[in-house]
Amino acid sequence: MLNSIGKRHQRGCDFRWPKGKRNTLRIIYTGWIRNPNKVNNGLRGLKKIDTWVFDLDNTLYPASKPVFSQIDKKMQSFIAARLSITRANALKLQKKYYKQYGTTLFGLMKNHNVNAEEFLEYVHDIDYSVLNRENELKNAIDTLQGRKIIYTNGSHEHATNTLKALGINDCFHSIYDITASDYMPKPRNAAFKSFIKKYNITPNHTLMFEDSLKNLETAHKLGIMTALIRNNDNMTLITDEPKCHFIIDNLTNWLIKVEKNLYN
């Protein structure tokens, strides 16, 4: 993906302009950079950011951590028991509703009159000890100037338990969970507008971190700056994605780089 430019590169980000869109900055945090001065200038453009929005699952911790895999299995068990179907069919329905509505829960509420609170309590009854305290991440988030908000399609309790397990629960000003938007999930436009209104957000002064390209597409349309957390599930989607201003492999390292460029 990167062209060789000599014997040595510098670690950091790959600076790119989307084809035909010279006014849209993209920085891909690949581990190597071709022009560190351009990258640093791009990061300094974040000085206007006064609101930092973080997705929760597979964003604040690596997707390789067995957290959401536990939730997946719990959802399958819930659907199979509630609808009296096999786990295989429950899995198909779960993925269908997630793709169609943004969350499995929204599909179950709409089509099967499932009680949302019961569902959320069941699927988030998981083992959070698989997560480690992330002191470097905590320090990096604490350094960011402005509001820091969690925006998740999960429950408030799940967000709180996850943040406590990571040791970063004191880093955030607020948690905006699925109940706050009356169960309207990301990536729906109405959900984002509700979020923006709730916190009186200025979109172009806001940066959102997400592992879901669909969610970032909506944010981008509304004028929010976007940062995609790259993992094995979304790797093939981001070869040349203009809707992502930043593409990040390691959130902690990226935030440390931001700190050095903005505040030092």
Can you tell me about this structure?
- Helix 7 links the parallel strand 4 and strand 5.
- The chain folds into two domains: 170 residues, HAD superfamily/HAD-like (Rossmann fold), CATH 3.40.50.1000; 56 residues, DNA polymerase, domain 1 (Orthogonal Bundle), CATH 1.10.150.450.
- It has 264 residues and is α/β, with parallel strands linked by helices.
- Helices cover 41% and strands 12% of the residues.
- An eight-stranded mixed sheet has the order 1-2-8-7-6-3-4-5, sandwiched between helices.
Summarize the structure.
The protein has 264 residues and is an alpha/beta fold.
What is the alpha-carbon Rg in Å? 19 Å
Low-confidence stretches: 1-39
CATH architecture of the largest domain: 3-Layer(aba) Sandwich
Beta-strand share of residues:
5-15%
The helix tally amounts to 10
Give the CATH class of the largest domain.
Answer: Alpha Beta
**Structure class:** alpha/beta
